Amino acid sequence: MYRSHNCGELRAADANKEVKLAGWVQKSRDKGFMIWVDLRDRYGITQLIFDEARTDATIMQQAKSLGREFVIQVTGTVIERESKNANIPTGDIEVLVTELSILNEAQVPPFTIEDETDGGEDIRMKYRYLDIRRNPVKNNLLFRHNVTQEVRNYLSSLDFCEVETPYLIKSTPEGARDFVVPSRMNPGQFYALPQSPQTFKQLLMVAGMDRYFQIVKCFRDEDLRADRQPEFTQIDCEMSFIEQEDILQVFEGLTRHLLKKIHDIDIDAFPRMTFDEAMRRFGNDKPDIRFGMEFGELNRVAQHKDFGIFNTAELVVGIAVPGAASYTRKQIDELIDWVKRPQIGASGMVYCKCESDGSFKSSVDKFFDQEDLKKWASATGAQTGDLILVLSGPAFKTRTQLSALRMELANRLGLRKPNEFSPLWVIDFPLLEWDEETGRYHAMHHPFTSPKKEDIHLLDTDPGKVRANAYDLVLNGNEIGGGSIRIHDKETQALMFKHLGFTEEQAQEQFGFLMNAFQYGAPPHGGLAFGLDRLTAILGGQETIRDFIAFPKNNAGRDVMIDAPAAIDSAQLEELNIDLRASK
Amino acid sequence: MYRSHNCGELRAADANKEVKLAGWVQKSRDKGFMIWVDLRDRYGITQLIFDEARTDATIMQQAKSLGREFVIQVTGTVIERESKNANIPTGDIEVLVTELSILNEAQVPPFTIEDETDGGEDIRMKYRYLDIRRNPVKNNLLFRHNVTQEVRNYLSSLDFCEVETPYLIKSTPEGARDFVVPSRMNPGQFYALPQSPQTFKQLLMVAGMDRYFQIVKCFRDEDLRADRQPEFTQIDCEMSFIEQEDILQVFEGLTRHLLKKIHDIDIDAFPRMTFDEAMRRFGNDKPDIRFGMEFGELNRVAQHKDFGIFNTAELVVGIAVPGAASYTRKQIDELIDWVKRPQIGASGMVYCKCESDGSFKSSVDKFFDQEDLKKWASATGAQTGDLILVLSGPAFKTRTQLSALRMELANRLGLRKPNEFSPLWVIDFPLLEWDEETGRYHAMHHPFTSPKKEDIHLLDTDPGKVRANAYDLVLNGNEIGGGSIRIHDKETQALMFKHLGFTEEQAQEQFGFLMNAFQYGAPPHGGLAFGLDRLTAILGGQETIRDFIAFPKNNAGRDVMIDAPAAIDSAQLEELNIDLRASK
């Protein structure tokens, strides 16, 4: 037995016990006649003491040789400390060492194993196995484990059955790019790694499994944006004999359960907001509602004056930034530059200060008098001391720009509090979205998403207005889950394909497999998938998913720790019946 | 809401309730004036009744149109049945239907959705989504879910943390063949799918995670034998600061927990048997100890007579088949033919009947008298009425042959009872095994497996005799788990590589990555992995893993349901910088 206790559990009540501990040397302080060593393992830190007066000389000598991150095992007696350390749970005691064994020496690590390390992102990723020794990373992984355990226990208690679906499946031309796997046994043929178990979960509903879930890796070969991973984890769920309301109830319940278990936070029924409302009020289909700065539409009060830019705009819209009337010209100019950056793309921004004396001071005073500006304040909910920022232009684009500005300001003002949680459902998403490139409508979710019955008649006349039985669960400005009620009857499916511009042959070719299965008695069904990486990060009060993944890849899709991907040898290529193309 | 109850929950106490049910038509009986329909969902079957005297004529007509596997929704009143059906939990009631809605029609399924179906393996796999509607398959999937939940809860309660390791990793030349994934973003380079998370779990120990587990898919591109899958699931575990005994305790605990929770079976401490003992007593390193027929070595009592075949054999060994003295000459000849098949490869078999009058009758009576044969009976533990079967030849080969015969006879005699569970540990595996092909020793487990300290001195003189800290958990004649204590110090590792015939350069090239990580303070660690597919099958009283996988592949590695693998289009190949080789 290597240890009688771990490094996080000894207390004053254990005084005088003989114990055996093992772990890593966090640090040591050598006063010559006395040496203290902080011994660390996953569970905590325990202070060891070596004392010339009480410790064997050989051990004393050995203790002096200990370097950072050495792995050691000690036997000793628990003694109550004279000067206690209230910062750590074991701070009341220390262990007077009587036996010391160096289990493994360690080279000096390339960065310090401390909560705040001196290692940059790159070096930490290369030595991720050392990075994980640091509390913040280690705790994130433990936290993720707790989240998944709670998810599994909750869903299992509701009769959901976790079913493993295959990883070696078939490539489909629709959607994002697949990772593929050449088959040695079937020359010239390839498996694909699943982008999601969508088809299989729908088949499991046809199969009568009724309530399915799976915490499962998914793969997308996309050009990686910051904080995207080629492999990511979903909590994938599907239910039969349900309507949208049933799904919302179950997964609202799951989210409430997580918030309660993990943060002891009670949240009542989640607000629900239609897609249209979310866009109107927040310019965003995943609004962060932890703070205000809601959009005020100003068309009525700001158009038909002499300010041509507003007059020709489809939408004039503003937000009131709390307490920002005091911003200097320089600060405001910086904000104007910020929205004019290509990533945001506004052509300019109008502002109006709500001064403490009740007056207004705007960048367009030439065109708007105090009465006009008062109406702006009223439309944006601005109070004395606030700064109104106004954008104008095409409606969708302008909303998106103002939403980006709203989030930026919220970050700067510290309004996005990591330990405050404001979930909501965004519902009634459009069924279709217009694709400029192909000049036709595409399914916004996927072609099996069901339209709202009452909107089906609009498919012929105004397809963009048809709403879907599709919903997103939004938490603190992030989409953490989304799904839909699926089409399960032939007639609606045929109608959908027609409106998506598929011929019957094309539909059969691309989706024939699932459609055929549906002919054997598909139940009404629908589901939802959570992004586990993001869900965990947000529940953990953070936004970077990489910090919640044990061995993440970088933005080039590389694992810098193991140096993958890498070349493989020619014999392997030959067996797989493939050749590399000559580089161009 | 599609239903107020599921099809498995109504009881006599629900009589007179108005209920809403939904499900599939299992079957219907039409007596003209009365129609009964068995409505099925995942949870059970409820009988619906349509009665001319009480049911609306339109609904009556609709009910007549219902085909097998139609998906319907009904509203009705629960009534107590006159003739109850004790075979199903809902057998006391039926539902008198007042409203009927056909949610989806169904084509006639290609095989009957019954416990005993008329569909063969191939057709059931092609329509797996219908096969899963059958109770035996559905129950296997639910059973698997329960097993994984119990595993996760048990390990979590012991502070094990489930960590997801990456699926897109790096190909390694050692071991089985990797599946590889061409990287589009890194032309000419490939990821590999993990054969197991071995490296990552050891890195997690270096990272201080202390107790790790993961239920995880693994991939091996091997020529598939019956009941092997290219993707399979492991319960992968690793612990730090432990010795072999700690691992055995924890995972014996897990197995005991599963047997208790799933079958309410209490099992005391698992027997432990060394590899040598298992081979000697059962000719097999995964002995089925639910029954006897232990090996009796006969060298001492059967050699040095005039029977040359025995005299020149390294080993003469027999088993006593209970009650088989009554076998006819034909039956015995069939057994002799059985062991002479190329799959077994014995050149012949000697038998001896233990007759009811206490005499012995053998096929070698010419060479052995009654006194000799009595010694055979004593060595094999044969009783009156038993049949002793004896093989001879090179020790390892002969044991393997006799073990196959023992298992075959146990199957025939019904001694392998599916609901009896006899786990045991097989320990002290050899560290090295001789490879005829390369003419050198290979690591039996893997090169990081630690040798027993007391055997290290044999590495130079008798390497085949060195035992490893390696162990298998065996259940009912199947290896369900296996693992080892790893080497964590440089000196032993260097010694191992030397004896495995690696130069320092080769060792660095193939294992450098992990060895480098070890330099930063590796704790003593070890672990084990269970094969979840097999574990579940055996706990479920079966041996075919395919029956416990939702969507298995066939022996050619194909998913016949989705028809994968398949060709991909040339644009995809181009993006991936690969070409297909012209077929040879």
From TrEMBL, chains A, B:
Principal subcellular localization: cytoplasm
Binding site for ATP: 220-222, 229, 479, 531-534
Residues covered by region (Aspartate): 198-201
InterPro entries: Aa-tRNA-synt_II, aa-tRNA-synth_II, aa-tRNA-synth_II/BPL/LPL, Asp-tRNA-ligase_1, Asp-tRNA-ligase_1_N, Asp/Asn-tRNA-synth_IIb, AspRS_core, GAD-like_sf
Enzyme Commission number(s) from the entry: 6.1.1.12
Xref: Pfam families: GAD, tRNA-synt_2, tRNA_anti-codon
Domain Aminoacyl-transfer RNA synthetases class-II family profile, residue spans: 144-552
Subunit organization: Homodimer.
Family the entry assigns: Belongs to the class-II aminoacyl-tRNA synthetase family. Type 1 subfamily.
Protein name stated in the entry: Aspartate--tRNA ligase
Organism field: Sphingobacterium suaedae
